[in-house]
């Protein structure tokens, strides 16, 4: 599967071998990880991806992606899907960046591309959530067009859905 490329980022589809390295915290000689990568969230996402691969097969295109800066190829975070689309075509996403990469618009840029990709791959809706105190993540989801869809005692839920599946170019329409 090909990388997804934005103005400043490369979203690299994670392989099983790469996920195993993330879980082990050991990059290979070709991987360039920024200090602080992988975060606990990235390790948890890699474990979920490996579990999915082992139990039902590789979920790609709805797998995990490393977020790499285009300028130097350094991995600064990750994003991806919690698994393949359900029977209604809905997918759930998650994302995270190392602390030094936050506040630069990378998360919004990466998530915007992932929404376009999900729609192009046939997803009818994308869901996400953020802890109540994670205001930055809530801002990222609203910045890319996701709307609040409820909350519980721990998190706020967000969603975007497309009703016209013939126009697959703009996730915000």
* SSE series: EEHHEEEHEHEE
Q: How do the strands line up in the largest sheet?
A: 1-2-3-4-5-6-8-7
Return the domain count: 1
- Under CATH, the topology can be stated as Aminopeptidase
Average pLDDT metric:
92
**Which CATH C-level class is it?**
Alpha Beta
Tell how many strands the DSSP assignment holds.
8
- Count of helical segments? 4
Low-confidence stretches: 166-173
Dominant shape: globular
Fraction of helical residues: 25-40%
Cα-atom radius of gyration:
15 Å
CATH level-4 homologous superfamily: Gcn5-related N-acetyltransferase (GNAT)
- Cα end-to-end separation: 27 Å
Task: Tell me what you see in this structure.
The chain is of the alpha+beta class and 173 residues long. It has one domain: 3-Layer(aba) Sandwich (Aminopeptidase). The protein has helices at 16-24, 40-56, 106-120, 135-143; strands at residues 4-5, 9-13, 64-69, 75-81, 90-97, 125-131, 147-151, 155-161. It has an 8-stranded mixed β-sheet with strand order 1-2-3-4-5-6-8-7. A hairpin with a 3-residue loop joins strand 7 (147-151) and strand 8 (155-161). Helix 1 packs across helix 2 (40-56). It is globular, with a radius of gyration of 15 Å. 35% of the residues are buried. The model is unreliable at 166-173 (pLDDT under 50).
């Amino acid at each position: 599967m090909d990388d997804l490329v934005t103005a400043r980022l490369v979203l690299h589809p994670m392989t099983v071998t790469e996920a195993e390295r993330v879980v082990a915290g050991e990059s290979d000689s070709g991987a360039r990880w920024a200090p602080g990568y992988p975060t606990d969230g990235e390790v948890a996402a890699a474990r979920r991806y490996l579990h999915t691969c082992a139990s039902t097969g590789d979920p790609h295109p709805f797998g995990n992606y490393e977020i790499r800066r285009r300028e130097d190829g350094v991995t600064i975070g990750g994003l991806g899907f919690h698994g393949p689309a359900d029977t209604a075509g809905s997918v759930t996403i998650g994302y995270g960046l190392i602390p030094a990469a936050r506040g630069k618009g990378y998360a919004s840029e990466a998530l915007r591309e992932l929404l376009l990709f999900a729609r192009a791959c046939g997803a009818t809706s994308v869901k996400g959530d953020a802890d109540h105190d994670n205001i930055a993540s809530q801002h990222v989801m609203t910045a890319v067009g996701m709307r609040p869809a409820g909350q519980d005692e721990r998190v706020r839920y967000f969603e975007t859905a497309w009703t016209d599946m013939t126009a697959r170019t703009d996730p915000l329409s």
